[in-house]
Records
---
Amino acid sequence: MHRPRGPPLERLRHHHGSGLKGRRRLSINLSVPSLENNTSTWGKEWDWSQRGEEWSAAWGGVSHQWWTTLFPRIQGYVPAGRILEIAPGYGRWTHFLRDLCDELIIVDIAENAIEYCRERFREDAHIRAHVGDGISLPMVTSDSIDLVFSFDSLVHAEADVMRRYLGELSRILASDGVAFLHHSNLEAYEPGTYDPDNVHWRAPTVSAALVEQAAAGMGLTCVSQEKVAWGNETMLLDCFSVITRAGSQFDRPNVVVENFGFATQEIPMSHRLSTQYPPSRPEIRFGDRAGETINTRQAHANALELLECGEPERARSTLHDQMRRAIDPEALNDLAVLTTQSGDSEAGIDLLRALVRLHPDHRAAAENLAALLDIQRPSGCSTVPNVAR
Ligand SMILES: C[S@@+](CC[C@H](N)C(=O)[O-])C[C@H]1O[C@@H](n2cnc3c(N)ncnc32)[C@H](O)[C@@H]1O
């Protein structure tokens, strides 16, 4: 259930069709989904205590929404080397995307969202999270992204924002890169023919046609556009656009479909499945990355990029986490002991110091280090360090 606070309740009660019916008001001045209003709504006013997972209720939960609505649409574009997620919020889709790539960059205008994602995905050294300005992606290298993903966010982005992001796509997409973008189609409808209070805060200046044309002007091609009746049966309020570079392996004439059954058939089907079959387990990792940890070289590259972005503390912690993961503490402890026993106690101490820094909870290493330091003291006792096992 939604738990918005304050004024956004009025404009956002229909962010998602969770069963609330629209209601006309006479005196409320509905805000437009400008960049400024998006920033204050999601950055300050929205109650994120459910991480946005409440928006998946109609599907029977986040897992069922991912596996029945999202994954079937992007399955042909993953796994991907490098994925960019625009506007992840509190990581509802990041959780799944992280298993489908070697590197995941997430960018949101809301600082709270990025802070939350950094904490939520702190074990995932291959995720880099950035606060963005809502229109540009300077933290993303040119020609580097294999898949851009954005869902349930850019529906609130007006034409100026969409045009700026499309311009960035033309710079950052790899030669066979592809973007899956969920955006508004409200501009296709004449103002006055709909109740502006009942369109889920969709951007009135954006349509499928506008995105297709803007993309074409930037050397990109729309290869698929699915217009979707979001939260209703008659108005194709939204569109899922797949965009690629002209000439890429995914390039083809645009395939445009009108999905009027999204809210009445597709979502209820997912919900029915959810009442019969359990969701995927959070501890199970899917995709190519399953069971795999990021390699040290990749973590090193990430850390250097973080340094370039002026974030030395996060660079240090990325490398620290990776080295901690990469080292077998038992083997390093035994190496230190054997090094000491073969006469090089200075080197043994250095190795143990590094181990204790990375694994302060490793008791044998801490005891061996203490013993060696003790022996080094002039009046040292005779405790001899032991191989751990
Ligand atoms: C409704 S939430 C959805 C979050 C997430 N996609 C999900 O489905 O759970 C919208 C998110 O989009 C972000 N956002 C809105 N406009 C944006 C823009 N122009 N650039 C980046 N993020 C934006 C907001 O800060 C917020 O986190």
---
Amino acid sequence: MQAVLTAVAVSVALGVPAVVSTGAAAAPVPSAGQQAMGNPHPSNLKPTGIRPLADGNFHAYRESNYVNGCYWSGDSANWVFSGGCGNFNDTASSVWNNGYAANLDGVLMFKDINYGGPFMCLSRGDSWGDLNLGIERFSDGSFANDQISSHRWSDFC
Ligand SMILES: [Ca+2]
């Protein structure tokens, strides 16, 4: 990590963009200032066949088919402490990105807290109704059902 930080520091000092390669499995890095905690709330909304108005939130649900959910407007580094939703760690079985069209409109979901471990990305407007099917998996191919532990918004998927 020291080498990475040094490269960035030098790059910043020289006024040129830093190109930091952390390997093929690395997740996109969010813009600075987009690290605010998510302010989670229980969610009863669910995607329907008709595209609903975006509410700017990322929704995750304890059950498949969008039941017993929680939504966040921002990032959350640790789903163990998800505020109004209780402990949401390793419990999500369906997810929905109902974010606004904006600079940050993809959602990266991580297997570990603090945006660690393998990840997967859900584009704006998309929803995955049953992670238990194993169709959507983390970047290392591992099973995603009941495994997500943190998330953050991303410039792209
Ligand atoms: Ca996990």
